[in-house]
Amino acid sequence: MGTPVVTPVTTDVERSAIRKISIRLVPFVALMFFVNFLDRTAVSFAEPNGMGEDLGLSAAQFGLASGVFFIGYILLEVPSNMALHRFGARRWLARIMVTWGIVSLLFTWVNSTEQLYALRFLLGVAEAGFFPGAILFLSQWVPARHRTRILALFYLAQPLTTVIGAPLAGLLINQHGSFLGLDGWRFMFLGVSVPAILLGVIAWFYLIDRPADAKWLTGEEKNWLTGALAREESEKTAGHGGHEGLKAAFASGRVWVLALIYFGFIYGLYALAFFLPTIISGFEDQFGTHFSVMDKGLITAIPYLPAAIVLFFWSRHATRHGVRAWHVAGPAVVGGVSIPLALSMGSPTATVAVITVTACSIFAALPAFWSLPSRFLTGGAAAAGIALINTAGNVAGFAASYITGWLRDLSGSYYAPLFLVGGFMLLSAVLMVLLAARRGPTAPAPEQELITAGH
């Protein structure tokens, strides 16, 4: 039996403040995340729809091009998040968006494998720090008891990026030669880049760094928010579970275990994100089917709509009952078992159905997972710790992209790569259970408990 979660009474002021944040702030940051994920995965739609043939890419070369993005991202991940902590989210997130939008725009005119590698690397440099910065920013606006719900609303943008983005990419690719004679895949890069630049400019004026500066909050709401957040920071720094410095975050065993857990989930996420359109294109040879570009976009979107629904309800349960180990470990087990089975199915429908189960598993766990680091990290350590955990995810993104393509070329199929995905997700489940079982003297108080093993 785990320690029961203490549920404080929710006041009208608290309810009103959280509702306003959910309406005024979260959707805009989620929209930024939507464009962010669309820009970084646009290459997966371009490759099977002309780019691979035009640039002469093998599966391994495409995997390297997909994965080299994460090298640039990894190099600047922690420094970027520390800069956000120093200069404020409004300026830093706006700067990141405009910079990556400009780099993404240059993909419209890429003409060689070497140029593709270089631009993917630069895109990673430009985007570095956006995701952990957004997580940190939202975590600084709401107390811990509301964090899973807020992060779930934010995280809905990721599966919905594919639900909306895959058909949108298909629509843009179908505009072959309609704008300046550009190939369809080149026009697609143009179409997904401009929104990033525009949103970056808007973010400079729209975002607010602190609740105390929000004109759309009443005085009572500001006082409650700043007081609740200040009390949490004080409790974290006063107890053994709090970490005040950058060095302390890097020395935290829990941070590194969470980084390994996140690695497994993100390895699976990007293996699907970058190679699912290619796997669907392979249905023509495997099952003798034929799909148009738009059909492929719609099929690619199928797993992600149920994933968004499962994410919402799973996170709501975690918010109401407290984050438990099985909120993260359970989906990891389901995903780890389901993904290797996908290519053993006898039809495109069955294959996509199994992949849908995997997508639901990955996305269900992520908001609950991201509510954990900020429960025992504070200040600069929170910025560094969240960035360090996300860095592990970016290592997974590079590894998943390159290794999946390399194993595909080596073995002639996607069976071996997907078994590896399953193995990493099962490892994440084991580590989550072990972390829950290790309840030493640094564990937070019951009402701020990191995780518990059971009910």
Structure, described:
The protein is mostly helical and 455 residues long. The protein has a single domain, classed as Up-down Bundle (Growth Hormone, Chain: A), CATH 1.20.1250. 75% of the residues lie in helices and 0% in strands. The protein contains 20 helices and no strands. The chain has helices spanning 12-24, 26-46, 51-55, 59-87, 89-105, 113-127, 130-139, 144-155, 157-173, 184-206, 219-238, 246-251, 253-281, 283-287, 293-301, 304-321, 325-338, 348-370, 379-411, 415-437. Helix 4 runs antiparallel to helix 5 and helix 16 packs parallel to helix 18. The longest helix has 33 residues, at 379-411. It is globular, with a radius of gyration of 21 Å. It starts with 11 loop residues before the first helix and ends in an 18-residue tail after the last helix.
Helix/strand layout:
Blueprint: H1 12-24, H2 26-46, H3 51-55, H4 59-87, H5 89-105, H6 113-127, H7 130-139, H8 144-155, H9 157-173, H10 184-206, H11 219-238, H12 246-251, H13 253-281, H14 283-287, H15 293-301, H16 304-321, H17 325-338, H18 348-370, H19 379-411, H20 415-437
Helix pairs in contact: 1-11, 2-7, 2-8, 2-9, 2-10, 2-13, 4-5, 4-6, 4-19, 5-6, 5-7, 5-10, 7-19, 8-16, 8-18, 9-10, 9-15, 9-16, 13-15, 13-18, 13-19, 13-20, 16-18, 17-18, 17-20, 19-20
